[in-house]
Amino acid sequence: MLKFQSVSKSFKGSNESIDVVKNVEFLVKEGEFVAIVGPSGSGKSTLLGLAAGLDKPDKGKIHLDGVSLGDLSEDELANLRSTKVGFIFQNFQLLPNLTAIENVAIPLMVSSNLSEKEILTKSRDLLVSVHMEHRENHFPLQLSGGEEQRIAIARSFINDPKILFADEPTANLDTKNGNIVMELLQKLNRDKGSTLIVVTHDHSVANLADRILEMKDGELKEKFKSNLKSPKKKIQASKTKPAKKKKR
Ligand SMILES: Nc1ncnc2c1ncn2[C@@H]1O[C@H](COP(=O)(O)OP(=O)(O)OP(=O)(O)O)[C@@H](O)[C@H]1O
Ligand SMILES: [Mg+2]
């Protein structure tokens, strides 16, 4: 579904260039839920932007749903994004002069054959699913950070994406709304078979994923999940390891 082959990206600073993504290789299968963790500034958002075709690598190849992104024209890339890709940005990127419901509807308004009424009905249903229906006519400036994030999440679902990239989707949410969002993302992954790639600092979010990849200084490595999470494995582990003696 997503393949990176020796992908590198650097940005020009004032007098030097910074290597932000270094020779990254990885493969995500269709329907997988992958979490990407790593320190601030390690290149996670840059990697996600490259994967979604929002940015271009300096070196290497990226395949998304069977096509090489480097071979596509800008129009073909835009078409791929509007039909197959969902993206939840770290800074939401809502359009300030559109209301909440218009922001959710916008990807379909520009690309689909559905009528305006059908699109608005679908958008309203998504607002309900993120508990934001009471704010449908608010503009982004009239919303809190967490509310903006939920609108951005609803928008990313509007085209039933085959692959969804989410950059810190729970960062601005309280535990209750964070759980609602993760349940929605997992539902999309489970029921529609959508591939899910989530950047997160939150270990409880990362632990929901099938696999965790760790970005460090522009390099990406597979991180092995703590297998002490499931009660069954905990019990097995306690049988093989002697319990630590309590200090007195
Ligand atoms: N357009 C750009 N021009 C110049 N430098 C950039 C640009 N975008 C990102 N960088 C630099 O690349 C590095 C990685 O940025 P990136 O946003 O990918 O990190 P991140 O892992 O997502 O961090 P965070 O967890 O804080 O969101 C940072 O040092 C950042 O300053
Ligand atoms: Mg980031």
Summarize the structure in words:
The chain is α/β, with parallel strands linked by helices. The protein has a single domain, classed as Rossmann fold, CATH 3.40.50.300. 36% of the residues lie in helices and 25% in strands. The protein is built from eight helices and ten strands. The protein has a six-stranded mixed beta sheet with strand order 6-7-8-3-9-10, with helices on both faces. A four-stranded antiparallel beta sheet has the order 2-1-4-5, covered by helices on one side. β7, α6 and β8 form a beta-alpha-beta unit. α3 packs across α4. The longest helix is centred in the last third of the chain and has 17 residues. The protein is globular. The N and C termini lie far apart (54 Å). The model has no long low-confidence stretch (mean pLDDT 91). The protein binds adenosine-5'-triphosphate (ATP) and magnesium ion. The site of adenosine-5'-triphosphate (ATP) has 12 residues, from β2 and α1.
Write a brief structural summary.
With 248 residues, the chain is α/β, with parallel strands linked by helices. The protein is 36% helix and 25% strand. The protein has one domain (2-240): 3-Layer(aba) Sandwich (Rossmann fold).
Give the tags:
four-stranded antiparallel sheet; binds adenosine-5'-triphosphate; alpha/beta; six-stranded mixed sheet; Rossmann fold; binds magnesium ion
